[in-house]
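Hi,

Apologies if this is the wrong queue. I'm a grad student, and the batch job for 3-aminobutyryl-CoA ammonia-lyase from Glycomyces luteolus produced an output file that my downstream script rejects. I'm not sure whether the problem is my script or the file. Here is the sequence I used:
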Amino acid sequence: MTDHNGTTVTHRRYIPYGHAHYGGNLVDGAYGLGLFGDVATELCILTDGDEGLFASYADVQFKAPVKAGDVVEATATVVRTGRRSRTVEFTLMVVCRADPERGDSAAVVLDVPIIATTATGTVVVP
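Support response: The file is valid. Your script probably expects a header line. Output copied below for reference.
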């Protein structure tokens, strides 16, 4: 068994305004969980040559809002390697945010990214 602890995958994505689900251009929390599934899939391919299956979340924390117009980074890091399972820590960070007070298309790169969502999950590979 190969120890994959510390292996990390990050995806960056712009959130279009069509994904706003609530007032104030808020995006639902499931959007971030979908991104966690994407980075977990790439992580399994990288470590095990298989897409794997997402088995469970042990903890999900919604810490700050995610909005349409944001650029987010979803990161997955293996923290425990079992025979067929991998425990993975996930983080969703907002790295850019729309700035509508300056104009309809204005945005800023955040000096300090906002941690929006964290989670711990388990993936299983053959």
